[in-house]
Amino acid sequence: MARRARPAAVTFYHHLARSADAAQSPRVCTGPVCALHGAEALCATLNAAPMPCAGRCDQPIPVLHQEQLWTAAADGTRAIQPSPLPPPNPVGGEECVFAHLRTPGRASLDGYRRSGGYQGLARALEMAPAQVIEHIREAKLAGRGGAGFPTGLKWQAVADAPGAPKVVVCNADEGEPGCFKDRTLLDHDPYAVVEGMTIAAYATGAALGFIYLRYEYPETFFTLAQALDDARAAGCLGDHILGSDLCFDVHLRRGAGAYICGEETALLNSLEGKHPFPRNRPPYPVTHGFNNLPTAVNNVETLAAVAPILRHEPGWYHNLGRGGHAGTKVISLSGDIARPGNYEAPLGLPLTELLYGWAGGPLPGHTIQAVTMAGLSGGFLAGDDLNVTLDEPSLRAKGAFLGAGGIMVFDERRDMVQIAAQAMRFFAHESCGKCFPCRIGTQRLRERLEGGGPDAPDLWLAEVQDVGRTMQALSACGLGTAAPNITASLLRCFPDQVARHLAARQGETTWTS
């Protein structure tokens, strides 16, 4: 007899419900970019429920209805659109994960093999596992999901840890607003991720793998399921892979809609059927991960880079970056920009070169007022701070960070206090509630951005800053420490707009977004 889902789990996940009728209601993305295109009006037109960013910022507005996702205009006009291919590198620079992705037929196993697929695994199988790890370490591949931890060190820790079977987990729960790179890789190059997981399994000694995919990607789920079936049938997964002693299989699991499951330990709890609270660390997943087994959790983009790196020497990948920075980073660019989409940029590329040279600059007749970094988590950059390069040292010097690589652009028409309020509503809604600094702090910051708090501007500012500092110092995971970047950067970049909103509130003018 099937176990019933616990009420707490049903109410925690966005796409679980306690009534059968709920499945009949469409859900409309109301993320930051879709809000600019009339998402609230579309909700009313379709009598739909809102949902957080659905990872289609390059194709607004996505509507999810049962197992079908389509895009719609504010008037309800709709069309089913495939995930777009990324635009070619405009300066002809060499790419890593996008190098063959645009090749016709790449998403099929035969097409993947025709364009170099499984050559990386074949080479890895000729090496000792420790040599594979050293190859990845010398290339300086680091996590591309946001944390940036060196991949070779993570794999070495899993290989050295006692316990079996060891596990490889692909984190495909891409929930950060403004990020949609993983969807593109999985839709157009699924075998690159599967091959990367298989190489990771060989290097670490893992026998078991999982792909944890966000619920909002229904087409991707079926693409991956087919890819895994075809890989098993061809001897690329399962027992004695490619005729070797390597035995490794991958299971596909679908999330139910919760931003916090992008945090690796919350993901592992969800994968185990537990409430997806982040775990206290230590111990870390490399020693106590899935079912307390040694586990390597890697992002989609990280895993997609593994096979190309194995097909080359380590220095090849390292030299793809600029200014001494190793490798590339896929940037998801959306909002008020001429050519939104995914761009594989060398680390160290100037942000202005990406915005104006690669993506065509702002929409005609407008100017760029601000961008968000790391989706929303890195806060705002504006003015002279746009003169940064796409690497962590440059961005952290400005109070931001690169994270998963989502950049949303806002032109001069946008009220940045309203944008910040919308962002904080997202964080308040997505806080798991485990720790009180985040659970309470995100709500207090949301209330203040929507017009609450002390009447005196200096007290309002002091309170917002104090709440932010407390959250950053005491929150249990990255959601709580990152959310205050929105208010801190708003106060730093747009003091005049904040002052106008405070003055309007004092003048009895309604102050909401």
Task: Explain what the structure shows.
- With 513 residues, this protein is α/β, with parallel strands linked by helices.
- It folds into 4 domains: 60 residues, no CATH class; 210 residues, Rossmann fold (3-Layer(aba) Sandwich); 84 residues, Ubiquitin-like (UB roll); 91 residues, Up-down Bundle (de novo design (two linked rop proteins)).
- Helix content is 40%, strand content 14%.
- The protein has a 5-stranded mixed beta sheet, with helices on one face.
- Strand 12 and strand 13 form a beta hairpin.
- Helix 6 packs across helix 9.
- The N and C termini lie far apart (48 Å).
Strand order of the largest sheet: 2-1-3-4-5
**Strand-residue fraction?**
5-15%
What does the radius of gyration come to?
22 Å
Q: Which fold name is given in CATH as the topology of the largest domain?
A: Rossmann fold
- CATH architecture designation of the largest domain: 3-Layer(aba) Sandwich
As residue ranges, the low-confidence spans are 1-5, 508-513
Instruction: Give helix % range.
Output: 25-40%
Write the SSE topology:
Blueprint: H1 7-12, E1 27-29, H2 32-36, H3 39-46, E2 49-51, E3 62-65, E4 68-72, E5 78-79, H4 109-114, H5 119-125, H6 129-139, H7 151-160, E6 166-172, H8 181-188, H9 190-204, E7 206-213, H10 218-233, E8 249-254, H11 264-271, E9 295-299, H12 300-311, H13 314-318, E10 328-335, E11 341-346, H14 351-358, E12 368-372, E13 380-382, H15 392-396, E14 406-411, H16 416-430, H17 436-449, H18 457-474, H19 478-482, H20 484-493, H21 495-506
Parallel strand pairs: 1-2, 6-7, 6-9, 7-8, 10-14
Antiparallel strand pairs: 1-3, 3-4, 4-5, 10-11, 12-13, 12-14
Helix pairs in contact: 5-9, 5-12, 6-7, 6-9, 8-9, 9-12, 16-17, 17-18, 18-20
